Amino acid sequence: MIGRGAPRLLVPAVTVAVLLALTGCGKLGAQPGTGSIASSLASSSTAATSAGGGTDAATDAATLNGITQDLDSADAANGEAGSNAAAGDQAAATGDEP
Amino acid sequence: MFRIITVAAAAGALTLGSLACAAPALASTSDGSPTPTAHSPLSVIQQAGAAATARRITSLDTGISKVNSTKTLSSADKSTVLGTLNADLAGMKTLQAKIAADTTAATAWTDYKSIFTDYRVYAVALKQSYIAAAADGLTDTAIPKLQAAATKISTYFAAHPDKVTPELQAKLADMQAKTADAASKTSGLAAAALAVTPAAYNTDHAVLTDDRAAARDALADSKAAAQDGRDIAAALK
What we know:
The complex is a heterodimer.
Chain A (H helix, E strand, L loop, with lengths): L1 H22 L13 H57 L5
Chain B lengths: L1 H13 L27 H28 L5 H27 L3 H13 L3 H39 L6 H21 L2 H6 L3 H6 L5 H28 L1
């Protein structure tokens, strides 16, 4: 029985061993390899990095937008201050003597 | 007359939306001629007094209306300005009625002079209001916005050192320095301008000159800082 059952056990064992060797799974500090399930994980990891880059780009865009908005507000306030300063000059030029 | 209307229209166009919209009422630069003297007949003094008070009443009405609607002045300074302008308005109306009712040239002359020496509507009241409005606009809005923009630019520079050139660094440093200068020049400026009285002006006609110059210089700094910010933003995009 033992002798007849050995080949039936050997094929799956060799298959598992080959898979482990190809994927690198089972080793200490195993790294995902190409053409394995691990490569899918690697792809996911790359996608996450890309999403992070997108977030960085959005943050940069928001920062630049914020700078522009602050400068718009400052320009508007400068414009009003300029008008008031000009009116002050005009008042100064107005006669106020008996 | 055409000149007055032209100047008034130009001033109105320039000052749309600000306290300076009161400017058209200031367009005429004199109280008419001939200017009465201590020896003028009663009727001449009364006529000049009526014109001078009416002109100031119009200017004050316009100024009060604009102060009520402006968002440039801080609430505390707005209260001070309105107190002065309303008191001057009441004073002008009182003088207008009194001069019209005066029965001697000497009394009318004394009242006529009071229009100027006791109020200084143009030389002090309105002028100090404009200086305060300009200073408050810089202090409360322009300068804080410039500081916020500079902070954001610094943050961006730190995150992207590869994009920072020596020229951009210099622009940012200039922006921060100009903003600091503007803040320094406007510090206490509105309060100082609003503290000037007609009596102080009577003693020293240049009493508001330094305040006016400070507002002008601070505005120039603020504009230069904003331009630095624009240049940097354009380079980063």
